[in-house]
Amino acid sequence: MPTAISSAHRKVAIAGVALSDCGKVDDATPYALHAQAARRALADSGLDKGLIDGFASAGLGILAPVEVAEYLGIKPTWVDSTSVGGSTWEVMAAHAADAIAQGHANAVLLVYGSTARADIKARRRTSNLSFGARGPLQFEVPYGHTLISKYAMAARRHMHEYGTTLEQLAEVAVQARANAAHNPDAMFRDPITVDDVLAGPMIADPFTKLHCCIRSDGGAAVLLVAEEYVADSAKAPVWVLGAGEHVSHTTMSEWEDFTVSPAAVSGKLAFERAGVTPADIDIAEIYDAFTYMTLVTLEDLGFCAKGEGGAFVEKGRLTLTGDLPTNTDGGGLSAQHPGMRGLFLLVEAVRQLRGEAGDGQVRKAGGRLPELAVASGTGGWFCSAGTVILGR
């Protein structure tokens, strides 16, 4: 195994990305999806498995990174099992980039896999009645505060404060589906309209069914490496330019403002560290378990002013040919959402910057490829955020 180099100045690149089989995968375990995504990402990078000396994983097993690393045949000297919900993977990417820059690791593999859809279908998963029975959540759980209802309350507050409309929230779902139409691997590709979204069955006011993410199976993997290994990579590097992370609350009564997500802090840090501004960004990959998440995160990252997200998402701005192509693969609303989607944001951002998105490829004026992307994950019920700026 290569010896880590002590340096605070090494640049960090993403050398390999991949997805496992996604959507409806009834014949695989979560471990198998981890392994499939990892093998594909390593093949994508063209690098040798022996280079990997760092590993990050969460959400599977009692000793998450240890069990999965053993399954993959990896014995890392740097590990991370940070678990902060959907933003986990952006936070892990930030930690990995710091470790590589400091010489504590040379190549860090981030990997995730879940059979969230198949588990429900096969009724293999049972309810955990102790969830929230202890700690701060015990004061909310008896009143029926489900995860979706927390997001719904936040959306209603934004509507009350700023006049955001149901039609504007629906636009997020419509445009995500328009992008998914160009992604052959998306679970849902047929076009939808604002009226379709509004007419759907109510799940948690104001969210109807199409305001909510799909449930899928699937896995993803991302390989980050130090700059000296880029020359041996099979693909052009995508550089990690800056990252930020922030945690906000777990109890809703401790959330100071339902209209401000923790991305307001993680995004500011990421942009400052990358030395770029939201105006420089070509594409955005935003965690979208619900339509409101996309809208408020775009505000908090600085793409528009607070309260202007509703108007910002209108007129096709988030589509592949819009002013700010967002969730270019169709996002969690249409492409795939296997429990924690943060790693999928990084995979799609890298593919777009490389020009590998096929019919879903974003092109700038003159047919140019995008230069800069932001991937911003959200965990829990706006409990955490991780933001990463990537560039060619």
The geometry reads as globular
CATH-scheme architecture: 3-Layer(aba) Sandwich
Distance between the termini: 28 Å
Assigned CATH class: Alpha Beta
Mean pLDDT: 92
Using DSSP, what is the number of strands?
A: 11
CATH topology: Peroxisomal Thiolase, Chain A, domain 1
Q: In CATH, what is the homologous superfamily?
A: Thiolase/Chalcone synthase
Strand order of the largest sheet: 3-2-4-7-1-8-11-10-9
What's the quaternary structure here? single chain
Low-confidence stretches: 1-7, 124-130
Structure characterization notes:
It is a single chain. By secondary structure, this protein is α/β, with parallel strands linked by helices. It has a single domain, classed as Peroxisomal Thiolase, Chain A, domain 1, CATH 3.40.47. Helices cover 32% and strands 17% of the residues. It has helices at residues 30-45, 64-72, 88-101, 116-121, 147-162, 166-180, 194-199, 263-274, 291-300, 309-312, 331-334, 342-354, and strands at 12-19, 54-56, 78-80, 107-114, 202-204, 207-208, 218-226, 238-247, 283-286, 372-379, 384-391. The strands form two sheets. Strands 3-2-4-7-1-8-11-10-9 form a nine-stranded mixed beta sheet. It has a two-stranded antiparallel ribbon with strand order 5-6. Strand 2 (54-56), helix 2 and strand 3 (78-80) form a beta-alpha-beta unit. Helix 6 (166-180) crosses helix 9. The longest helix is centred in the N-terminal third of the chain and has 16 residues, at 30-45. It starts with 11 loop residues before the first strand and ends with a strand. Residues 1-7 and 124-130 have low confidence and may be disordered.
